[in-house]
UniProtKB/TrEMBL annotation:
Required co-factors: FAD
Record InterPro entries: FAD/NAD-bd_sf, FAD/NAD-binding_dom, NADH-Q_oxidoreductase
Pfam family name, one: Pyr_redox_2
Lineage: Bacteria, Pseudomonadati, Pseudomonadota, Gammaproteobacteria, Thiotrichales
Protein name: NAD(P)/FAD-dependent oxidoreductase
Domain FAD/NAD(P)-binding, first and last residues per copy: 2-348
Family stated for the protein in its record: Belongs to the NADH dehydrogenase family.
UniProt keyword list: FAD, Flavoprotein, Oxidoreductase
Length: 444
């Protein structure tokens, strides 16, 4: 029986493992194994909601172990660190527990076909000060860490500004009297930075509603710093202009044409001068894991594996790569397929079809990317973006409730791919009920 190993259970890898488990594993046609360095999966586009506290990872994350047992694939926890192409073995680093104690030694896993789906992380462009002083949204742990720091900073702010500590007596300060604001700088005004900026203001509004004393909308100052001449440079000028207007109405300070040169603990040195900041989030560009360039595969300058239209790594017959960790430029296109959940989803689908074709000795198909457009959430019912009709190759702008429902449907599609129709229905229903009974903000 063929051994298919998928490394990385993210937006692409988990959908692929589910599909292969259902189509091959269930019928004993192949042994499908998913490897991930974490125990649970959280769809990455939800991370900015984890930061603001509007999403609780405990409720939303999926246990790989439980999911694998229901979908006929095996799950092994581990972190890929090397590859022996001759022996068709991948190498997993020794596994440590949460105290740093080694619980498993280095392991070697055999494969007949390997799929790399390990995603990418934010690109610090080799600037060591970014690594030292910035928060990044590359994993649920990092997003939760930032969320706690955010809550703690506002707790400090509330205590510092509330002169009267008697809970029975209201504070006498007005927002104008308050000594300072909490300043958060976000570097990079792509979709991630823009959505995070909007989410943070919503979180502060919620803190105010929960009665945390002396917290007002104006207690937060967000600087959104972008090297290009406008925010959301990948979208049309009109979408970018509308998003900028919505953010500025919230209070976001947008600084375009601004290059960050150096980051310090509480400030950023930029091409337009120094900016004080209590917290700094880095959301500028992506890069794949550096070790990918040492595996003997063809990679580009940001370490993404170069792939053919069949999704096989260039020059390889048994190694596929999908999602953010690979680079593919369709014939005639000027730019590679963008690193989005939408692309990872489409690649996962074709990769599953091609692996099934291999098992059934049929020819491989080639990947065609369908760009359905981009939507950016700037708060409930403040979603906007542009959709692309592939048939007539025309873009049109959407906003308001329609855009909000389309945006929410992206995650629902991912859930549908993972759970199938019946279970998805119950999950959707329970999330509606939870929204009604739980606080709108995770306060811990
Ligand atoms: C805050 C944020 C918001 C976003 N919003 C959107 C959006 O609205 N729409 C959109 O289309 N895209 C969005 N994206 C981009 C989207 O999340 C990614 O393009 C998508 O998740 C890529 O899928 P993937 O499967 O390639 O990688 P990922 O989803 O990143 O999954 C990678 C998996 O590999 C695992 N892994 C990593 N290294 C190893 C290793 N060495 N060994 C074992 N396992 C490993 C990780 O634990 C993870 O489970 C957003 C990204 C971020 C960060």
């Amino acid at each position: 029986m063929k051994k298919i190993v998928i490394v990385g259970g993210g937006a692409g890898g988990l959908e692929l493992a589910t599909r292969l488990g259902q189509k091959l594993g269930k019928y004993g046609l192949a042994e499908v194994t998913l490897i991930d360095r974490n125990r649970t999966h959280l769809w990455k586009p939800l991370l900015h909601e984890v930061v603001s506290g509007s999403l609780d990872t405990g409720l939303e994350a999926i246990s790989y172990r439980a999911h694998s047992s229901e979908n006929h694939y095996y799950f092994r926890m581990g972190s890929l660190c090397g590859l022996d192409k001759e022996k068709r073995q991948l190498i997993l680093a020794p596994l440590e527990d949460h105290h740093g104690k080694q619980i498993l030694q280095q392991r070697f896993i055999d494969y007949d076909y390997l799929v790399l789906a390990i995603g990418a992380s934010s690109n610090d462009f080799g600037n060591a000060s970014v690594h030292e002083h910035c928060y990044r949204l590359d994993s649920a742990q990092e997003a939760e860490d930032f969320h706690l720091t955010f809550l703690n900073r506002f707790m400090q702010y509330s205590e510092e500004n509330c002169l009267n500590m008697d809970p029975e007596t209201p504070c006498e300060n007005t927002s104008e009297d308050l000594s300072d604001t909490v300043t958060i700088s976000i570097v990079g005004a792509g979709a991630t930075g823009v959505e995070l900026a909007a989410e943070l203001y919503q979180a502060v509004d919620q803190l105010e509603r929960f009665g945390i004393r002396e917290i007002h909308h104006s207690s937060l100052e967000v600087n959104l710093i972008e090297a290009a001449d406008r925010i959301l440079p990948a979208l049309s000028e009109s979408v970018s202009g509308k998003a900028a207007q919505t953010l500025e109405e919230q209070g976001v300070k947008i600084l375009c044409n601004t290059m960050v040169q150096e980051v310090h603990a509480n400030s950023l040195q930029t091409s337009s001068g120094e900016i004080h900041s209590d917290l700094i989030v880095w959301a500028a560009g992506i890069k794949a894991a550096e070790f990918l360039s040492r595996l003997g595969l063809q990679t580009n300058r940001i370490h993404q594996v170069e792939i053919e239209a069949t999704l096989l790594a260039k020059g390889e017959e048994r190694i596929f790569a999908i999602g953010d960790c690979c680079s593919f430029t369709p014939e005639g296109a000027q730019r590679p397929v963008p690193p989005t959940a939408q692309a990872a989803h489409q690649m996962a689908k074709l990769c599953a079809d091609n692996l099934i074709a291999i098992v059934k000795r049929k020819p491989l198909q080639t990947f065609e990317y369908y760009d359905h457009g981009t939507l950016v959430s700037l708060g409930p019912f403040k979603t906007l973006g542009q959709l692309l009709n592939q048939m007539i190759k025309r873009k049109w702008q959407v906003e308001g409730k329609l855009a909000y429902w389309l945006y929410a449907s992206l995650y629902r599609q991912h859930q549908l791919a993972l759970y199938g129709g019946r279970k998805f229905f119950w999950i959707w229903l329970s999330s509606l009920l939870e929204k009604r009974i739980k606080p709108k903000l995770k306060l811990y």
